[in-house]
Amino acid sequence: MEAQGASARPVVEISLTVNGRPHTLAVEPRETLLDLLRMRLGLTGAKLSCDVQVCGACTVLVDGLPVSACTYLAYEARGRQVLTIEGLADGEGLHPLQQAFIDHAAFQCGYCTPGMILAAKALLDEIPRPTTDEIKHYLRGNICRCTGYKKILEAVLAAAETMASRHG
Amino acid sequence: MSVGTLRRTRGGVGSSARRVDGVPKVKGAFQYGSDLWAEEMLWGQTVRSPHAHARIRGVDIAKALSYPGVRAVLLAADVPGRKTFGLEFADQPVLAQDRVRYVGEPVAILAAVDPEVARRAAERVVVDYEVLPAVTDMEEALRPGAPQVHEYGNVLHHVRIVHGDPDAPADVWVEGYYETAMQDQAILGPEAGMAVPADDGGVDLYVATQWLHVDRQQVAPCLGLPPEKVRLHLAGVGGAFGAREDVSMHIHACMLALRTGRPVRIVYSREESFFGHVHRHPSRVWMRHGATRDGRLVNVYARVLLDGGAYASSGAAVITNAATFATGPYEVPNALVEATRVFTHNPPCGAMRGFGAPQVCFAHEAQMDRLAQALGMDPARVRLQNAMKTGSVTITGQVVRGSAPVRQVIERCLALPMPEEPAAGPRDPQALPGGAGNVSRGEGVRRGVGIAVGYKNIAYSGGFDDSAEARVRVFRTADGPAVEVHSAAAEVGEGLHTVLVQVARTELGIEHVTLHPPDTAIGSAGSTSASRQTMMSGGAVQLACRAVAEELFRRVRARAASAGRTLRGELTLADGRVLAAGEPVGEVDNYLDEPIEARRTYHHRPTQPLDERGQGDVHVTLAFAAQRAVVEVDEELGLARVVQLASAHDVGRAINPQGVEGQIEGGAAMGLGLALMEEVQLDGGRIRNASFTDYLIPTFLDMPPVVSAVVEEPEPGVPYGAKGVGEMATLVATPAIVAALRAATGRPLNRAPVRPDDLIGLAPPVASGPPPPAPAVPGPRPVPHYHGLDAGQQELMRPESD
Fold it and tell me: For a tag on chain B, would you pick the N or C end, based on fewer CB atoms within 10 A?
């Protein structure tokens, strides 16, 4: 990025861990975590959609909890562990949630999918075998415009089963 | 078309094949328009009108241009070619010239080195407006003396359908007035794309769109470039639903890229997205239904107004659809339909899932319920008794030649299991209407059931020569034969690309199929809209595959002949092998020393435009759906909850059953949105709720269980007998839910979305005077002249080969 225009704006240095890798960056106080991920680190899996923390397309996990990266200042993430969709799978494989989303066609355009999957991961970390109602309530802040949610519900239930059976 | 003889190949037609875009989408690697990035890229920003109607006295760009980091600021005078664009009529300025006609109309564009600089610089563009009187009510716009949106008046198009004897008497008459609101597609991925200047003086545009070629038809003339120098490539599409049929940032990004010599990306903010695409037309509909005492429809009158806002977009086609479907999927021997698409100074309206059919479906289904009540009949029986079938004649005089299982969809829908009644005793507050917000104990909760039936055309109608091209190449790889499919058809999330792969697998018996990235290097596939791509691009891939197979069989026969053998029986392909009369002849690989390639174009059967009496064989294929909704209403609090949505859909044949379910479930959610919450609220042409905090979309908690059935009666004359399935669920969900709300409350709710005040009787039903007089027919012809714009307008809905 060229310095002009942006050079006059103040910056502050922060360190954080993203998908297991440490980063130290000079960020503007107004800069959001989403801008940091997408524009500085090139991690475009988290999406900007509503820009006001109601649709969940920008959901990432900070210290394991879902946050809306569109309204979460990069500065707030200093010293924390950030997980994005790019860091969810182990290597080339797929996380059980990712596999379940494919098996159940729990996406169409896919724009909400990274956020939806990460929110679902936070849910399953907290409640490994959620009920249908628990899933619906937990994911109510992640809007999907395409699927009508039914297949997302099925995918999360299926992933919970897979993960529970793996952990015995 | 043979349907029963298809050989099953893994992941072929009829199977719920896994989506081809699945892995990148779940890994966050799928590149949407807003994810594009290039070295040296600049960021585009749009300056928009704050007024619904104003004259532009002048624009001062000096402060913006001198802002550090700004590379270009462009105005209407900088548009290199034609100054206007449009989907059907080029009536919309690329950048406002002397006048703005809606709040949000682009006036200036700029490019800067980062998005924050671009935003700040945009605030420094000073526009001197002389505010003019605006007309923002569709009935006002038709009155004499109303402010004129365009010099040719406030009517884009009027359709009159006269069928049988519109004065025919009936035993029983019911009358009603209905409104639907402006609905936003609320695509989660806002408008986005990147233009890259090319060495040949042209430009490459990567954009999230529904139809690359119609974009190019509009972009190239405005840039003053020949089409071959404007190359479009499909970027990942974050939902469409009609919102991406019209040009948004396309021309702007190209202008800035060509001016600066650098790649320029434009991504709309959410607020901008509300201005940046057309919406579903708000409607006002007056209807009068006449029937015999035993419940046969005799005569229907419909007066339909659609508010199209400031520009034409696809409004002429939308109003034609609304007119032709105004009486529903019923046999109606006599009818008069007067349908007008009006210009106002509201934001422009155009395509949205259903395309004119949802507005009239809301009205005709309420009328059918009213008729049932007046006759003391069961609502389902009235519908069954009047249901269209193959051989029926529509109100445009068209004989329904294809499958028309209207009775079947109604019966299958009603046979789906009902939800359980709530158990006696106190209920979980979370399960009450309003959820945790419901402070009652459910004392005022009433349950209601409603049904609705609807229908819509598949593909383009009215004489348009609709076509789709595809290229198929079969070649040898280390792992056996492989297929590449090249089509410009846009995958917008519905699963089309998976369907195309399934078609190639089935036709060629080869599982390994890849897709060439969609672009304008191949001919047009037409739009991913009108539920048409499975039929049209599926058909093109099928034709190209069959041409490839023909060449392959020629090689097989030639080689056999040179070896002195004659192959008996029909040659077929399965599992990478060639078979003769079902017996293996050899591996396909053996015949691919040279790859085989074919390019084919699919056309559906010709249709006719409507004549002056609104008569004609106007639609290709019709698809039908029935919906049942069960709702609960808290009559004291005005809260509603949909308990269950059950529907049956006529799909001809399901190419991908899982994908069909996805369309039904997602379409139902969008219809639920219009029934209960979705409305672009306007105040003097200004959108009051251009944000997802105030424009509400159904969430996980709003969606009830959705159960569905598909009726598979293959449509004759179309590939695999498959009809499209993209729109019908949206069409019928809204009227079924509102019918259920009427049943629960006993109130004559006549406007969607239904608000809490409507449910508890604080707001009376929306009232209207008599319908406005219909304009003279024939004429005015849509956009007859466009004086004052040097480039003029041209009709675009013509095949490119003309």
Answer: C
